[in-house]
Every structure is written in structure tokens, then in C-alpha cells.
Design goal:
two-stranded antiparallel sheet; extended; single chain; mainly alpha; disordered N terminus; 8 helices
């Protein structure tokens, strides 16, 4: 390039147009929909059919907790927010959704630890589903009143062949036996005993 052409270019006075704005800027609502669809798409790639169904319903429940459908008098259906999200909480929720999307992508790409966690969540080894399953087994018997409990505990304490631990229900003992037979393959936890 010649020196004269450099002088010509430098003599041009361009108006500054301000900071460049991306042309594909999307708002939070659009990003939410994109993340929702991407998460559901990743669910279809999971290798286990139970995991696909569980993760699909988990994602739908998590997203629909913030929205509800309402019918207008003219027959149209609109979606309204049920929980108010301030900007800070919305940013955290979108960050969590992006993190979950990356996690599912890694599970589908064959990363064993990520896939194992998804399967553990599906079959109730970790997470909310485990707490739900265990709470059903630990529920007290509503048919037993306080007086009968006092009588039974007095009989047990006076019994000569008293066991140190109370007996487990059949369901809980079956659960514990299955957990012992097939321990979690995670290395960051102590094995069940």
C-alpha cells in the first residue's frame, strides 16, 4: 500500500456510531424458550427410556412451575407467570438451566460420571426422587394410637429376648437389601452397609 493511500484513509472522518450492538440479541423470554427446547431435545438422546421420561418430566415440571395457562373469555389461551422473578433470580434460573443443558450434553456425549448421575436421579439413588421414595417408607402408621404404642413399648422393654434395634418394615428391608446388593458405583461416597 502506498503512503499516499494511507494518508487518504487517515484523512477520512468517520462518525463514531457508539458501541457495536449484536444483531442477534435475544431477551430473557426468548432465551428461556431456547433453553427449554434444547433441554427437552437433549432428553431424547439419553440411552435409557426411563431416564428419558424422568428427565423430560423433571424439566417440564421445573419450567412450568413459573407459568400457568389461562383461558380468556374469547377462547384464546394465554400463558401467565405464576411466580414473580426479579432480575437476580431470573439470571440464576437461566444460569442453572444452562448448567443443566451442559450436564445433559456431557451425559449424552458419553461422559460416564454425568450419565451415572442422570441414571441415579432416574432410579431414585440421589436427589428429590430418593427423598420422595424414602418418605413413603418412613411414614408413620396412622392406625396406631399413643396408648397402644405405650403398651407395646412396655412389652418390648420387658421381653427377655429383646432386640437392640427395632424391626424394619418389609418394604424398607427389601430396599436396603437391594441397595446393598447393587451398591452405587460412585467413588466419592462410602459404600452402603
Amino acid at each position: 500500500m502506498r503512503l499516499s493511500s494511507v494518508r487518504c484513509l487517515s484523512s477520512l472522518k468517520l462518525k463514531p456510531s457508539g458501541p457495536l450492538q449484536p444483531t442477534t440479541a435475544i431477551n430473557d423470554h426468548q432465551e428461556t424458550i431456547l433453553l427449554y427446547r434444547a433441554l427437552l431435545r437433549q432428553c431424547t438422546y439419553l440411552p435409557d427410556s426411563a431416564a428419558r421420561r424422568y428427565m423430560w418430566s423433571h424439566i417440564v415440571d421445573r419450567f412450568h412451575a413459573y407459568y400457568t395457562k389461562a383461558k380468556l373469555p374469547d377462547g384464546r389461551t394465554v400463558i401467565r407467570k405464576t411466580k414473580a422473578l426479579d432480575e437476580k433470580r431470573l439470571a440464576e434460573a437461566l444460569k442453572d438451566a444452562r448448567k443443566s443443558l451442559k450436564y445433559l450434553q456431557r451425559a449424552n456425549d458419553g461422559h460416564i460420571q454425568n450419565l451415572r448421575t442422570v441414571l441415579d436421579m432416574t432410579y431414585g439413588r440421589v436427589g428429590k426422587r430418593r427423598r420422595q421414595l424414602i418418605s413413603k417408607l418412613q411414614a408413620p402408621n396412622p392406625l396406631v394410637d399413643d396408648a397402644s404404642v405405650a403398651i407395646l413399648s412396655a412389652q418390648i422393654s420387658q421381653s427377655p429376648n429383646r432386640k437392640k434395634e427395632p424391626e424394619l418394615t418389609d418394604e424398607l428391608s427389601a430396599l436396603l437389601k437391594s441397595q446393598i446388593k447393587q451398591p452405587s458405583t460412585r467413588f466419592d461416597r462410602a459404600p452402603l452397609r
